[in-house]
Design brief:
The complex is a heterodimer of chains A (144) and B (75). In chain A, helix 2 (59-74) packs antiparallel against helix 3. Chain A has a single domain (2-132), classed as Aldehyde Oxidoreductase, domain 3 (Alpha-Beta Complex), CATH 3.90.1170.40. Chain A is of the alpha+beta class and 144 residues long. Chain A has helices at 12-23, 59-74, 105-122; strands spanning 2-6, 31-38, 42-43, 46-47, 50-55, 79-85, 87-89, 94-102, 125-130, 135-137. In chain A, a hairpin with a 4-residue loop joins strand 9 (125-130) and strand 10 (135-137). Chain B is an alpha+beta fold. Chain B has one domain (3-69): Roll (Ubiquitin-like (UB roll)), CATH 3.10.20. The radius of gyration of chain B is 11 Å and the shape is globular. Helix content of chain B is 21%, strand content 33%. Classes of the chains: A alpha+beta (144), B alpha+beta (75). Chain A binds chain B through residues 37, 53-56, 58-59, 62, 84, 95-96, 116, 119-128, 137-141, and chain B through 6, 8-10, 48, 51, 53, 67, 69-75.
Chain lengths: 144, 75
């Protein structure tokens, strides 16, 4: 299980491949499910030029680990990876990556969804959107 | 006796400080009241003690870190 908070842009496919090659044993996993959240250039009908993501160093990592632990207890998984951006980002930048490896697809699909939904409601991150006129804090996430 | 109090995101801007230290314990709500000079706590405020979510009536001990923040919006 790996949890990473990054303050600069990342390539989710490269992260996935790198993790898979360095951490997983070939031939053991039959299913890989991944989710990538990417920054849009609009929200609630307004153009958004850039966004800043704040987190609570220590608590954020600890909750991401906790969520992975819960998924590993609930489903039979081989490995989990969560990568999340913080700091200033721009449209089309990946914000989050969750990947789950398991023997069969059911566990991988369900656990990947679980990681994302739990992350969205429990991991301390806050989005601030930079608009043409000033900034605004995002009050709540869109329903999944 | 020393309690570290942290504010994040919109709450940090509303309270006007990111972090401060208090020299006496109590429960989470009393920590908020002293740290913000009795500012009303916004309804949806989340609290944590030592990086674990807590309620406003949870006891705070010497050396604890108490954090206040709005609903989370990551992912």
């Amino acid at each position: 299980m790996t949890v990473k908070i990054l303050s600069s842009a990342f390539d989710p496919w490269q992260e996935t491949q790198q993790h898979q090659q360095s951490q997983l044993e070939a031939g053991k996993y039959g299913a890989t499910a991944s989710f990538v959240g990417t920054m849009r250039d609009f929200n609630q009908g307004d153009d958004v030029a850039s966004m800043t993501l704040e987190h609570y160093p220590g608590m954020t990592e600890s909750y991401l680990q906790k969520i992975c632990d819960e998924a590993e207890q609930r489903w039979q998984l081989i490995d989990c990876l969560i990568v999340h951006r913080v700091g200033e980002m721009h449209p089309n930048d990946p914000i989050v990556l969750t990947v789950v490896w398991s023997a069969h697809r059911k566990e991988a699909f369900e656990a990947c969804r679980y990681l994302m939904e739990e992350l969205k409601t429990r991991a301390p991150f806050w989005k601030k959107e930079d608009m043409m006129e000033g900034h605004r804090w995002v009050d709540k996430n869109t329903p999944g | 006796m020393s309690i570290t109090v942290k504010f994040f995101a919109r709450l940090r801007e509303q309270v006007g400080k990111a972090e401060l230290t208090l020299d006496s314990a109590g429960d989470v709500l009393s920590i908020w009241n002293r740290a913000t000079e009795n500012m009303p706590m916004p309804d949806n405020t989340l609290c944590a003690i030592n990086m674990e979510y807590s309620n406003t009536d949870a006891p705070v001990k010497d050396g604890d870190e108490v954090a206040f923040f709005p609903p989370v919006t990551g992912g």
